[in-house]
Amino acid sequence: MKRYVIVGNGIAAVGVIEGIRSRDIDGAIMVVSEEKYPVYGRPLISYYLEGKTDLAKMNYRPADFYEKNGCRVLYGKRAVALDAEKKTLSLDDGTALPYDELSVATGSRPFVPPFEGLDTVEKKFGFMTLDDATSLESALTPDARVLIVGAGLIGLKCAEGIKDRVGSITVTDLADRVLSSILDADCAGIVQKRLEDNGIAFLLGDSVARFDGGRATMKSGAVVPFDLLVLAVGVRANTELVKNAGGEVNRGIVVDKRMKTSLPSVYAAGDCAEGFDASIGQNRVIAILPNAYLQGRAAGVNMAGGDESRSDAIPMNAIGFFGLHIMTAGAYDGEMSEEKTENGVKRFFIRDGLLRGFILIGATERAGIYTALIREKTPLSSLDFDLTKKVASNLIFSLETRRKKFGSVV
Amino acid sequence: MKRVYVNEEWCLGCHLCEYNCAFANSGMKDMAFALKDKKIFPRIHVEGEDKITFAVSCRHCTDPLCVKSCIAGAISKKDGVVKIDRTKCVGCLTCVLVCPYGALAPGENGTMQKCELCLENACGEPACVTGCPNRAIVYEERGDGE
Asked: Do residue B65 and residue B50 come from a single domain?
């Protein structure tokens, strides 16, 4: 009977568990969970603060998930060292867990730049975990002035989540636009306007020079008084366990397409891993939830003796602010083709006869049809792409392709 | 298992399937009362124009990407049927971004809805198929996929 150990208890860990159990129903699975909760949908923390979900509904799997899958979960324990030769994992309480196959699913942590005077700020928060969300919640007051450092996905979802529970929100970012990692300047402008229309203020292309209690002095000279500070500058993959064990680490833990690290019998998945990104043809951390599950799943299958590869992973995001939905996928290279529709803007990026990426603002209906064209590298010459730019439609495919899609088991 | 399949040559583009779907899932007894003068949110939709039309609903895929991508763990597959727990859904639309068939859409309250084959409403089998005047969609067994 194989002994499986999973370090981490997030979405990637669930993928690993379900991947293992798809092939091996007998092996013992041990999950090391630093957080004291069963797995929850991490991106839901902003929806929780907004009142769109609650703690019970945030459970990512039913209450009997671990029991049904024969897993033991060690809550509140941290893995401190990995010995890949002896095949043991040491925990912070001194125990050493022996394993046959191990998966690292340790996620990421906030990156906090060394701001001058940060230690003088009394109420400061990260925004990645449920504990972060509940601590922030307990500090919210109807007249609180909130300063959020970082206009990325995390900072802006936080702003939306707490908007109706505080007095004012200012978001600052070194970049000159919001969501700079996924949007171009024009699209970012549309999103920024929607946020401003809903009362969020911005200080972009600027950064904090120093904190002094409840005052932030910006590089531009502007002074921002605040009561609560949220730090959402960026994240760093938790790679130390593998790095210290002598495994190959770059920005994330380097894995092959089967999610195997350079260490024997050690796999990695999710936000801590740097796996293959088909949109650029090389390894990169793709820190999104679906990828965490799918990488975990592949790792689990392979740990249990199967053979599953992640060769078509691409970055993609579905995110919304105050009713404005945004979707992005792939790489923004090649020729840009823009479509303006009644409800929004679509930008497609086409190179060498392939759809390489897209940005959709407001007009997101049936966008998965576009995503599949990128993922499957479908030659646009084989279909009528122009027909589908305004509204995604299966009409672009040949009759034969449609017969397969809608007339057989898929 | 039985699924809904499309015979697009037979589709008249009449959109009756959309109305029957919306009515079946309304929980109401009177169709006119349920749908008249209201924007409907069916779980099947007719695509196409002029001569080519066809109805699209969930394929209940063997390997459903929506289930694996849902950020809330709201979509699951049981006995071959892909279902959504709308009380858990927060309306992020990640499922729309990944479904290659374009089979999911938000309902009236912004949470997602999808075809669940009418197995849990009063119809017991897909109302879209029952009401299709030309057998352009059928509910039958075609192969082994779970």
From this structure: no
| Contact at CB, B6 and A408, closer than 8 angstroms | no
- CB proximity A185 to B under 8 Å: no
B68 plus B53 within the same structural domain: no
Show the domain range for B82.
61-114
B21: domain CATH number?
3.30.70.20
For residue A274, count CB atoms less than 10 angstroms from its CB and return exposed for 0-12, middle for 13-18, buried for 19 or more. Answer: buried
Using an 8 Å CB-CB cutoff, list chain A residues near B64: none
CB contact under 8 A, B102 and A319: no
Contact status of A204 with chain B (Cβ, < 8 Å):
no
Instruction: Please indicate whether, in this complex, the C-beta atoms of B59 and A405 are within 8 angstroms of each other.
Output: yes
Question: Distance (Å) from the C-alpha of residue B103 to the closest C-alpha of chain A?
Answer: 7
Burial class (CB in 10 A: 0-12, 13-18, 19+), A368: buried
Ordered structural domains, chain A, with CATH:
3-108+235-303 (3.50.50.60), 118-231 (3.50.50.60), 323-407 (3.30.390.30)
Per-residue confidence in pLDDT tens, chain A, 410 aa:
999 999 999 999 999 999 999 999 999 999 999 999 999 999 999 999 999 999 999 999 999 999 999 999 999 999 999 999 999 999 999 999 999 999 999 999 999 999 999 999 999 999 999 999 999 999 999 999 999 999 999 999 999 999 999 999 999 999 999 999 999 999 999 999 999 999 999 999 999 999 999 999 999 999 999 999 999 999 999 999 999 999 999 999 999 999 999 999 999 999 999 999 999 999 999 999 999 999 999 999 999 999 999 999 999 999 999 999 999 999 999 999 999 988 899 999 999 999 999 999 999 999 999 999 999 999 999 998 988 888 899 999 999 999 999 999 99
Predicted structure pTM score: 0.96
Q: Which of A365, A399, A410 sits opposite B62 (nearest CB)?
A: A410
Residue contacts between A and B (CB atoms, under 8 Å): 127
Rounded Cα gap, residues A51 and B57, in angstroms: 31
B51 and B67 assigned to the same domain: no
For the purposes of burial, counting CB atoms within 10 Å of the CB of B41, is it exposed (0-12), middle (13-18) or buried (19 or more)? middle
- Answer yes or no: are the C-beta atoms of A141 and A304 closer than 8 Å: no
